[in-house]
Amino acid sequence: MGATPADTSLHLSLSERLRYNALMVEVSTQRLQGNTTSLYDLLDHCLRINPDGADALYQMSLMRIALEQRGLTEDTVGLQMLQRAALLDTGNVTYLHTLANVYLRQNKIELAQEVIEQLAVIEPHNTSVLSTLVDMYEYTDQYADAIKILNRLELMQGKTPGISYRKFRCYREMDRHDEAYAEMIALCREYPSDPTYPLTVGTLLLSDERYDEALAYFRQVRQMDPATPGLQLAMLNYYRSTNADSLYAPLLNEIIYSPRTESEDRGVAISTYIADLHGTDGADSIIMAVFDSLDVLQLSDYEVLRTKAGYLSDRGDDRGTVSDEMIAVCERLFDLNPTNHDLLFSLMQVYGDQQRYDRLEDICRRGVLNFPDELVCHFYLGVACYQQEQKTEALKAFLDGVAHKTADSNPSIVSELFGVMGDLLHDMGHPAAEVYAAYDSSLVYDPDNASALNNYAYYLSLDEDQLDKAEEMSYRSLRIEPNSKTYLDTYAWILFTKQHYVEAQAYIDRVCPPDSADSTLLADPDASGVVLEHAGDIAACNGNIEQALRFWRLALQTDDEHLTGTLPRKIQLKKYIKP
Questions:
Q1: Closest-CA residue to 489 (of 435, 537, 418)
Q2: Mind listing the pLDDT tens digit for each residue in 120-129?
Q3: Cα–Cα distance between 71 and 385 in angstroms, integer?
């Protein structure tokens, strides 16, 4: 950490010391009251009186580092203050712990290790510090030093599995294998009635291809307790490693189908079987038959289903879609564990992509129940209800989602909730003020929500209200998605409403090109009846009545429920009529 700096506080006058101490008392009061601004000003005043006040430097450093972490300042003054405080008061363990944590967060491993070593001297019996120091030594490949600290911990705590395992790993990394195994064997002697430790030693020996020694330990475990969890899998690996096929196959079969097998062991055994069959003819049929048999025997617990899901995922689907079989397995897994966050979101995505809105609704309702603060669950619940014409339920879902938003909520999701709520309120005939308030809220959380910008602008244009604002919002949506035909139509219609007919024509031609065949226009999902009617209205006001009649007649063929009531008269009279 460097040499201890000269402490200028020694030269403070008595009055300066008294003022400094009084201010530091007030700092404590303000900190307890959470007055951050006052705290900063007080500390700044303290440091002007005494630039080497370690306690003031420390408190100020915490505030500066917090600002740096939030990206409000890019300097490193906070760390420099903390370093100086620790140098001025070398025995203050609070300063050192904080400094070590800051170094670790900034990935300054060597500096952190230096501070933790200093703490280990000051607090020789602090097991947390010693354990962290072992972590540091292991991370920097200083295994001999790590073992020294582990020996200190062992003197303080006695021989424990955690310490022994860590010493084993360190000895292995140093290629001191005999000492590594001696450590584990000593653990077996320390706990002679626990079969877990000889099983571990046997497994390690097996991985080192010391088969005879491994088998001796497995037999020892069997004598202690033949039902020891993991013993059968260890023997299975032993038979496989020694090519004892006549013993391997029956044991594998027993582990998979025995009701006494632990759930995790069964999953491992099935995975082993799948690996054995990989690349062989008819492997898929054989593997799926195993899963079917386990279903019949009612042995398809969570681990089996998880293994099946993994197999189906690895097997994949040539069409690039999620198979019904995979969905069924995921549903069963979700039934067994409805708090599985990843499964919930996977099923939501699948049902949304497949437009299976009844299933999406069911999954989202369960998601809202288990994860009420996950706004995406409320959002997709609302979408699912809306798609099923359950508009009241959809609105309730969006309102519930908004009610659960917090300062930490994803602004984009909050914006989507308000934006789709605006669409729904308009669709349900709510007053314009409610609709526009929802869109305003949406744009507060995400000013670049293109859908909210577009829909807000379009509804303003229909009401012929705030057309300049509508044009500005519509243009922003086009800047975000310049090729969206929906957004191009909205912008063209706003220009039309403002009687900028020539400009409107340029934009509507990109949506409904005049040289496109009728069949092409009618087949275009983005060219709805309303859009075609808009194209006709704009053409008519630009003096091209033949083109207008063509678009109006095409619009009439779509049976769009949002067509104006004046459309037949426009065709009959061959001119634009305002609704």
A1: 537
A2: 999 999 999 9
A3: 41
Chain center to CA of 131: 30
Tokens coding 310 = 């993994």
Residue 559 DSSP one-character state: T
Please check whether residue 197 is in contact with residue 191, taking contact to mean a CB–CB distance below 8 angstroms: yes
Which DSSP symbol is given to 11?
Answer: G
Rounded to 5 degrees, what angle do the CA atoms 312, 317, 320 make? Answer: 130
Q: Lowest mean pLDDT: which of 70-74, 287-291, 322-326, 414-418?
A: 70-74
Tens-place pLDDT, residues 44-56: 889 999 998 999 9
CA pair distance 544, 575, nearest whole angstrom: 10
Question: d(Cα 214, Cα 171) in Å, to the nearest integer?
Answer: 19
Q: What's the burial of 379, exposed, middle or buried (CB within 10 Å: 0-12/13-18/19+)?
A: buried
Q: Which residue shows structure tokens 């369960």?
A: 366
- Buried residues in 285-322 as b, exposed as e (16+ CB within 10 A): eebeebbeebeeeebbebbbbbbbbebbeeeeeeeeeb
Which of 409, 417, 404, 426 has its CA nearest to residue 449?
417
Q: 214: which residues sit within 8 A by CB, 6+ positions away?
A: 202, 203, 205, 206, 238
And the tokens for 48? 């002007």
Looking at residue 514, the DSSP 8-state letter turns out to be T
Q: How many CA atoms lie within 13 A of 444 on its CB side?
A: 9
> Any idea what DSSP says for residue 9?
G
Sequence-separated contacts (24+) of 16-24 with Cβ below 8 Å: 16/49, 16/50, 19/49, 20/46, 20/49, 20/50, 20/53, 20/56, 23/49, 24/53, 24/55, 24/56
Q: What is the residue whose two structure tokens read 């065709």?
A: 571
Can you tell me whether residue 302 is helix, strand or coil? helix
Neighbours of 48 (CB within 10 A): 10
pLDDT for the residue numbered 4: 47
**Torsion (CA) 143, 147, 148, 152 in degrees, nearest 10:** 150
Alpha-helical runs (H) found in 196-279: 196-207, 211-224, 231-241, 245-257, 263-277
Residues in the chain: 579
What's the alpha-carbon Rg for the chain, to the nearest Å?
Answer: 36
Question: Is residue 337 within 8 Å of 343, Cβ to Cβ?
Answer: yes
List, in order, residues 6 or more apart from 253 with CB less than 8 Å away: none
| Measured CA angle at 346 (ends 343, 347), to 5 deg | 85
Residue 537 pLDDT greater than 80, yes or no: yes
Cβ-contact 34, 25 below 8 angstroms: no
- The residues near 461 (Cβ < 8 Å, ≥ 6 apart) are 467, 470, 490, 493, 494, 497
